[in-house]
Design goal:
It contains nine helices and five strands; from the N terminus they run αβαβααβααβαβαα. It is of the alpha/beta class. About 35% of the residues are buried.
């Protein structure tokens, strides 16, 4: 329903098919994405998110999914979302995409907050190099407001606010398109990401704005 509601409010959407290691679920997701595209509710179609990073599918399987969507929709750019470096190491995937949808997280690579914006710029440049002239969108970036340190990366209210402010200023000055992660704290993410997983939101779990 989100693409439909967004269309009614004049909001553009990047709509994704969530792919994993279950063939039937993947087929259902792809069909749903194609149907939404056919209904005029999609501005950018994303076929999978971090499938290569997780190892859910082979590169050939993912490429088949991308080509299935590309052959079924018209006038809608089709891409794939993954960590920025995956596009450098997998040129066939970069070539298959109409645009590059790169996740850039200095925190997850243990970067100190003081150098995080510079590091994100380097991540973005790496994605640009892989894109070979195609458009690049940063589909995820953010900084946790609580939780455990990762290397030199320290989660805190102040660091999360600084990172958000720096990212927004850079995006405005250099006209970089960014999806900021995330809107709300998600407690369920501690299962896969540890204690920091619950604290990436701009709003807390009670839907109160943090900053």
């Amino acid at each position: 329903m989100i693409p439909k509601l967004a269309k009614e409010y004049g909001i553009k959407t990047l709509v994704g098919a969530w792919l994993g290691d279950h063939e039937k679920s993947n087929a259902d997701e792809i069909r749903s994405l194609i149907d939404l595209c056919d209904s005029g509710l999609v501005n950018i179609a994303a076929v999978g998110n971090e499938v290569m990073y997780r190892g859910d599918l082979s590169e050939a399987q993912l490429l088949n999914c991308i080509q299935e969507v590309k052959s079924s929709v018209k006038d809608i750019p089709v891409g794939y979302v993954d960590a920025y470096y995956e596009f450098n190491t997998r040129p066939k995937i970069s070539a298959a995409c109409d645009l590059i949808l790169a996740n850039c997280y200095p925190y997850w690579e243990g970067c100190h907050l003081d150098y995080s914006l510079l590091y994100m710029k380097q991540m973005y440049q790496a994605a640009l190099d892989a894109a070979d002239g195609k458009k690049v969108i940063i589909t995820e970036t953010g900084w946790p407001s609580q939780g455990s340190d990762l290397g030199d990366a320290h989660p805190s209210y102040d660091n999360a606010l600084k990172y958000f402010s720096n990212a927004q200023q850079w995006a405005e000055e250099d006209e970089i398109e960014i999806f900021y992660f995330s809107s709300f704290d998600e407690s369920w993410k501690v299962d896969s990401e540890g204690d920091v997983g619950a604290f990436w939101g701009l709003w807390d779990k009670e839907e109160k704005i943090k900053f």
